[in-house]
Amino acid sequence: MTVVGVRPAREVPARRRAVTAAQAHEVTPADALSETEQQILAFERQWWKYAGAKETAIRDLFDMTATRYYQVLNQLLDSEAALAADPMLVKRLRRMRSARQRERSARRLGSGL
User: Which of 7, 8, 37, 78 ranks highest by number of CB atoms within 10 Å?
Assistant: First the structure.
């Protein structure tokens, strides 16, 4: 039985299935990030019940202060490589950062009235 307009898999030209040398050596989004940056994104995927636990884990895992960690994270969130590596996480973290910035601005503007 032949279905009109559908080619059997064996008729697909080999050149369409073969991976070219250029494709095999393409840089993936994760490759564009350093190992530490990849670890930071993996760390941010976790959920924390208590704020203090996260700060302790930051100090233990990354050997940096929480302040420095958040500076590195903010730079990472602004990078296209991070967005390409994990778009859902980066967009969620960007939204959360924007919401916090709006809240701070509203408090500052509200306190001056």
Answer: 37
Name residues of the chain where pLDDT drops below 50: 2-3, 6-10, 12, 14-27, 113
Contact 70, 47 (CB under 8 A): no
The phi and psi torsions of 16 (rounded to 5 degrees) equal: -80, -25
Residue 110, phi then psi, degrees to nearest 5: -70, -30
What separation in angstroms does the CA of 7 have from each of 18, 48, 95, 111?
18, 52, 46, 69
27 exposure class (CB count in 10 Å sphere: 0-12, 13-18, 19+): exposed
pTM for this one? 0.68
**Number of other CB atoms surrounding residue 83 within 10 Å:** 16
Q: At what angle do helices 35-44 and 87-111 cross, to 10 degrees?
A: 70
DSSP state of 11: G
pLDDT at 51: 72
